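debug: dumping io for the single-chain case to check the tokenizer round-trip. Nothing else runs in this session.
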Amino acid sequence: MQLKSIYLLLFFFFLSKSLSLAQELSPQVKREVDSLKRELKMAKHDTDKIKLNYKIATRYEISRPSFWDSLGVKARRINVPKIELNCFSQIYVIYSKELNLPKMREYLHKGLVIAEKYHYQSQLIWYYNNLAAAYSNEYDKKNTLEFSYKGLKIAEEIEDKKNIVAFYELIASCYFSLGEIDNAIKIHSKCLKINKEIKDYCGVALSLIGLGTDYNAINKYDLTTKYYLECKNYLRFLPENADANEIINSIAAAHMLKKQNDSALKYAQVAYNLAIRINDKGAIIGDLLTLARIYFEINENVKAKKTALEAYKLLQTIDFKLQIPDLTIILKKIYEAEGNYKEALKYYEVSVRAKDSLESVDNQKQALEKEFNYNLDKKESENKLLAQQNQIQSLQLSQNKYLMVGLIIVVLLLLLFGYLFLRQNKLKAQQQSSDLEQKLLRSQMNPHFIFNSLQAIQNFIMKNEKKEAFMYLSSFADITRNVLENSRMESIPLKKEISLLENYLLLQKLRFTERFEYAIHVDDAIDIENTLIAPMLSQPFIENAVEHGMYNIENDGKIDVFYTIKNDFLLMEIIDNGHGMGSSGSPGKKHQSLAMEITKERVTLMNKKSKKKTEFKINEAFPLQTERKGVKISFTIPLTMSV
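debug: decoded output
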């Protein structure tokens, strides 16, 4: 642990030395760096420290690969893979400015290992893109295609249109180098369409350059100049980078084709100045080559030779072979124009050797062309081959497969039937049990009604009121028959229930002539013939109201029964103005409790068989009165109609 601390101290000392040699910062960047340094002083963990040092170093734009390499090593030692990955990216950018292709590839491959290991999608796309571009610059079509298709697959999965275009452009460059210009044009046209859709104006201009270059290869110079010059419409959208340099240089080339040398020179100079500002050696060489061609075209051979030699000298410092043939050919022409045939021959031989070196790759053309077409068409042949293999395997395994599937289906069906059978029996048993409980509870209501009725008949006989006793006995027999019939049924029409209640209340009115009045109120919206209701839900409470609620009341007693519709429910209310619940004036508390308990049990059983629940409430009807608070019974019953 102590060694690790010493190691980190040495590392941070090395960082501070590197920063001291970096470029002078703008005031805004200096404020950012000062803020990061304060955070660095307060940081306690090595992970936080290395992240902050990375941020500080990027603000200083340190351009020494050794610094970033060292920082990457430290990141790996304390297991911060993203910082290590970013350090490799920084080194690649530094070497790309020098066009040091071997070093560019080396650090791209190092970063790719980390990106693939940790599945960093955005970084994977970036590394695949730059590796494909690096191999494209070396005419290595095999690796260009391999990395292009790997990156394209990820870009398409995440629908990253900008990177989809980038990989298509690389694939188009392979088509171009294989001489398949028609396919290159198709891809560049597709890229142009996508770039316009996503409003990537720099991308639009690059696609136009691609199309112009394609048509130039088949000598359609009018289309070449058309597409190159169309790029002028997008110049105001371009950032200061290598892409902008390529676009401006192409505009200069278009003016050269149209023999507009003044305009060509103007745009070539703009491109060269941009390349100097961004310090891109490849762009500088390309722009010097364009300037040399223009000077030669306008017979300024001294400037042409000076410019071309400057480009050739710079080309010797980098590992970039693509521009050697074009540059040495212009030098050959310049020396021929001077009459210096020795130098002209020298550069011609260099040009031939460079072309031979580059065109040696064409020996792979036949083998690569098949692989290339195979990849570009979404691996169509591979899909067909896989389909054939799958078909063969399917035929070989079909019998076993179908047998296995058949057995599984049979087993599943048996299990399903068994489950349904057991479930059905269980439901039937529950239904039977519930029906028996309902009948039992309904039958418990009958003795109370019969007992009270017989007691009333006995009172008439004792008073020698034979006529009243006969009428009561006759009505009692009729009501008793209906009650006994209804008690065996789960539900009856509301009309029948209302008729029973009217007969019952009329019978009770014979007993207590002056004690109470009654009324049954039915909402006009209710179809009483087809609306169903559980029998005898209200009778026990009406009986309590008559027998006990109206106890010791001489006249002005009132019992109201209301039936109304509320949403999808039938609302039934029994309201009396008697003594109220558990009043000292009423001996009916015990009877009320029994009726309430039995009704609650009936409601519970009814709710087990219905998704919509029946609600039962009992309250004082007139709670603000000091005496005779009355009772209000409420039933909220799901509305059920006879079929």
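debug: round-trip ok. Strands lie at 492-493, 516-522, 531-533, 557-566, 569-576, 615-619, 631-638, 640-641.
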